[in-house]
Amino acid sequence: METKHEQIIKYIENLEIGSKISVRQTAKALQVSEGTAYRAIKDAETQGLVSTAERVGTIRIEQKVQESIEKLSFDSVVNIVDGQVLGGKAGLSRTLNHFVIGAMEMDAMKRYIGANDLMIVGNRESVQEYALKEGAAVLITGGFNTSERIKRLADQTGLPVISTSYDTFTVAAKINRAIYDQLIKKEIVHVSDIMIPFAETEFVFTYDAPKRWYELNHKTSHSRFPVVDSQMKVVGIVAMKDVMKQQTADTIETLMTPLPVVVNPTTSVAAAAHQMIWEGFDGLPVVDTQQHLLGMITRRDVLKALQMIQQQPQMGETIEDIVSSQLKDYSKNDHYIFHFNVTPQMSDYLGSVSHGVMTSMITTVCRRVLNHMRRGDLVIDNLSFYFFKPVQLEQTVTVQPKVLEMTRRNGKMDIELFVDGQLCGKALLNAQFIDRY
Fold first, then answer.
1. One fold for both 188-312 and 319-433?
2. Which of 51, 169, 316, 408 is 20 to 30 Å from 204 by CA-CA measure?
3. Which residues are the signal sequence here (predicted)?
4. What is the CATH number assigned to the segment(s) 74-187?
């Protein structure tokens, strides 16, 4: 049997595109409370079924199919290669499948070209024509134009023909770089990936009596709840300490802590974790740009996500991955020593190791040492370089970290860096462990 929430979602799905939706009308049509209708409409917005705009209201929209983030559209390719669209503009929103470099004979090329591919070629019109007829877009390198016949064919097939002044090698490198960057972005887990949706979020209104906090506390065992106004904007947080402090208050508004710390759906889980640790919060409200409540994240959800990230295979190699692969551990007992080889990717424009790479190397070493002493997730609170000399390419850096202080919650480390026995850097690092709940 369908729940009321599911009935409302189905009702919204069956509305015509462009239909206006209101909480009151939906509640009346389905004979449910306005609170239930509101929650379902917000959930429908999250699913992409409706959109809310100021002075317009909530409108039923066409649900967009989410495409894989590692895919690029032809429109993106135009921007990547600083290109000019010669024809087939209607197909710019299509997604690029593969790209093929047309530097081979036509018979050999036929084995590789397919629908929604991108043929990268010079001024070979026969190849351009064949690609379009096979359902592939065309990227013409070297700044060449093409004939009116090819442009008309592009318009007829709805496949873009793009011209760029770059050579074939540069174009392929740029597209590869863009796909590679997308793969790295795909690995980053955001708040929207783990948050408790609005439909399942418990909250209180400013005008609620304090007994409402006790009801929710008994129901969920949570002690912190977001406080919203009549417009569903988050205006505060009410926690156990607030309720205990003023037991004679009439409304939640007089108890709550105003201007609460919030996150938005695009905040990374790592940033949210740091905020929770720094402030000592067990949960954070998730809001949109107008501060409307979208959901909640809890420390438990964040911990699960961080542990999941660590178990995932890497798809795009970041600077941190490169640094980690270059570290060699020569530690014995409690005497920690690491060697780090400097590769060309790590250099700045002067040929020295960039400050960012050095920072990443130090934090990676310290994480390994602290996790060796105590297993668990941690966040870096502070890293201070107080001595630093340039380190050249292909040199080997010896890293000697020393634990200055170790408590249940914190770790403090002193790090010394050597090249050929000469001191080249000193740093101090503080970290906080995340308790597992």
1. no
2. 51
3. none
4. 3.40.1390.20
DSSP string, 271-331: HHHHHHHHHT-SEEEEE-TT-BEEEEEEHHHHHHHHHHHHHSPPSS--HHHHHHHHEEE--
Tokens 């043929």 appear where? 119
Q: Which residue has the tokens 């080997």?
A: 396
The dotted CATH code for 319-433 is 3.10.129.10
Q: Where are the domains of the chain?
A: 1-66, 74-187, 188-312, 319-433
- Beta partners for residue 338, in sequence order: 329, 399
pTM score of the predicted model: 0.46
Residues 6+ positions from 125 with CB-CB distance below 8 Å? 146, 147, 149, 150
Q: 1-66 adopts what CATH topology?
A: Arc Repressor Mutant, subunit A (1.10.10)
